[in-house]
Design goal:
- Belongs to the bacterial solute-binding protein 1 family. WtpA subfamily.
- The chain has twelve helices and 16 strands.
- By secondary structure, it is of the alpha/beta class.
- The chain has two domains: about 140 residues, D-Maltodextrin-Binding Protein, domain 2; about 140 residues, D-Maltodextrin-Binding Protein, domain 2 (3-Layer(aba) Sandwich), CATH 3.40.190.10.
- The protein has a seven-stranded mixed beta sheet.
- Helix 2 links the parallel strand 1 and strand 2.
- The protein is globular.
Length: about 350
């Protein structure tokens, strides 16, 4: 009897040890699998957050060995992370394609693709003052009322912010009223404007200083959504796609000033903006998104595959209010894997 108990005890101990070894082996395999997963890092414009979240889920489903990590910010800030802070990203997607050739090429990028369009609208909520009175013809008069507070993103950090300045300066030309931009921004900030033979250069200082009683400013446009919905300010200049994605009410601005139409490119270019901190001058132009794989991207193969995936599924952009450019237009040393999906310009 005693011998049987001893044998049983030994068997139980051996079994426990074996189970523990098997569990450790399984955990080790799981950890190994997790470690083998490729982390694809994407720096992208805040206005691409909704469609890129969809792309992330779709891409990961088809590529289970890839973990897509997105880091949204103002497009200028995204670029600076790479060229100034030395951070590495597998993909850079900007709300202004021109930032890639102007700031990244040739050292940090040698090609880019223009893949989607947008336009600026004036968004508001049920809490906004004069919401029942404002329309597409009197909006600029409503905004000038003393008790109305407007919001836009920082022109130093975000294309939506500097495009807002361009839109308001263009509004002066369109409505033939030289006081619009002055009353809405210049009198309430340290932004300046220089006029030369019918063209205008907006000067944005390194440190933006605004009258917070009139202007509400944050780094990128998506940072302004929650405060707008909470009633912290009344009206927000933002991309039409973002307004649609967040179910905001909005006023459509005239085509001649909303930066959304190629046929008005000559009108838009009457205005330019200089970011003094970077000594960069940006001409107003139709809003076009750009994307590239930086030259120092850690996972170029997977990054190019993601770009190819985006270009192959334009319906995601279309469904989120950002018309896709079909075929996408590409410049530079375009990867072979993308050449069948793009129109290459010299």
């Amino acid at each position: 009897m005693i011998k049987r108990l001893i044998v049983i005890s030994i068997l139980l101990i051996v079994g426990t040890v074996l189970c523990g070894c098997m569990e450790q082996e399984n955990v080790g395999q799981q950890n190994s699998e997790a470690q083998e997963k490729i982390v694809l890092k994407i720096f992208h414009a805040g206005s691409l957050s909704v469609p890129f979240e969809e792309y992330e889920k779709m891409f990961e489903k088809e590529h289970p060995n890839v973990d897509v990590e997105r880091e949204p910010a103002g497009s200028v800030a995204c670029v600076r992370k790479i060229i100034d802070l030395g951070k590495k990203a597998d993909i850079l997607a900007s709300a202004d394609y021109s930032l890639i050739p102007q700031m990244m090429m040739p050292k940090y990028a040698d090609w880019y693709v223009m893949f989607a369009r947008n336009e600026i609208v004036l968004a508001y909520t049920d809490k906004s003052k004069y919401k029942d009175e404002i329309n597409s013809t009197n909006w600029y008069k409503i905004l000038q009322r003393p008790d109305v507070k407007i919001g836009f993103s920082n022109p130093n950090d975000d294309p939506c912010g500097y495009r807002t300045q361009m839109v308001l300066q263009l509004a002066e030309l369109y409505y033939k009223d030289p006081t619009i931009y002055d009353n809405l921004v210049l009198k309430h900030s340290n932004i300046k404007v220089e006029e030369n033979n019918g063209t205008y250069l907006i000067l944005v200082p390194k440190e933006l200083d605004v009258d917070t009683n009139k202007l509400f400013v944050r780094s990128k446009e998506t940072d302004l959504l929650a405060p707008l919905e909470a009633g912290a300010f009344d009206y927000l200049f933002i991309y039409k796609s973002v307004a649609n994605q967040h179910h905001l009410k909005y006023i459509e601005l005239p085509k001649e000033i909303n930066l959304g139409y190629y046929e008005y490119a000559d009108t838009y270019k009457k205005v330019a903006l200089k970011i003094i901190a970077k000594n960069k001058t940006i001409n107003a132009k139709p809003i076009v998104y750009g994307m590239t794989v930086p030259t120092n991207a850690p996972h170029k193969k997977e990054a190019i595959e993601f770009v190819k995936f985006v270009l192959g599924h334009p319906e995601v952009l279309e469904n989120n209010g950002q018309p896709a450019i079909i075929p996408a237009v590409a410049y530079g040393n375009v990867p072979e894997e993308l050449k069948d999906l793009v129109k290459i310009e010299k």
